[in-house]
Amino acid sequence: MAVKKTIDTWKTKQWYTVVAPKFLGEVHTTLVVPSSDEANLTNRVVTLPLKEITRDFAHVYTTVRLRISDIKNKNAFTKFIGHSLAREFIATLVRRRREALDVHLPLESKDGVEFQLSALLVTPSPCSEKQKKALRNSLSDELKKRSAAADFGDFIRAILFQQLAAELRRKLSKVYPVKSVEITKTQLYEEFDVQQLMEVPTVKTGERAQSPPEAPAIEEQAVEATAEAPATA
Predict the structure, then answer these.
(1) How far apart are CA 206 and CA 142, in angstroms?
(2) pLDDT tens, position by position, for the chain (233 residues)?
């Protein structure tokens, strides 16, 4: 009897090094992804800490999401599609007798890139509803103004390297004392070609379209028995 030979699929895979986006210097990261076919890597999303790109341990709480866009010489080139701060880091900012204000808004950069942004503003002491509204409005206005005046890559760099947060903190402290401002999350609006997925399948001439299965018929005997049952006093 012939013995069926098993093949280890991992041995057939090739390993590709993830390369950071252009605005981050196209640095070769420490992350490698396996694939048996280069075509399968395109549009794959990878997530890694920012410190794997910058080699700075201070960025350990920042996670970036990258989408593979091109493959060259075992290198997977990527584009930035979003980032987020770790929950445990955010938890260290929110303490008792502090106000934490969340802001979520859509933005568009100078070069026409649309994305969603979430920010957290923390004050060292409680404030009134009027002051909260003033802080939220001021933060939203500053984010809209700064994103519209900068290219997407430059704006994201300012976020990842904490330059924007420091400038916003100094600006908003004129409205009310602010302890910290953090851009907690960004997410790029992406468009994909879904025309093929939305196409309605056609039926060839001479073929009969399959109708959906009919629901099981209700037993008539049970219905009649229920109708003839005498009413109880």
Answers:
(1) 64
(2) 566 667 667 667 889 999 999 999 999 998 999 888 888 889 999 999 999 999 999 999 999 999 999 999 899 999 999 999 999 999 999 988 899 999 999 999 999 999 999 999 999 999 999 999 999 999 999 999 999 999 999 999 999 999 999 999 999 999 999 999 999 999 999 875 444 334 444 444 444 545 445 545 444 444 444 444 444 43
Task: Report how far apart, in Å, the C-alpha atoms of 89 and of each of 45, 58, 93, 132 are.
Answer: 24, 12, 7, 23
Hey, where are the domains in the chain? Answer: 14-85, 86-191
Q: pTM of the predicted model, to two decimals?
A: 0.77
Distances in Å between the Cα of 103 and the Cα atoms of 106, 147, 180, 185, 191 are 10, 15, 14, 11, 25
Domain 86-191, second-level architecture: 2-Layer Sandwich (3.30)
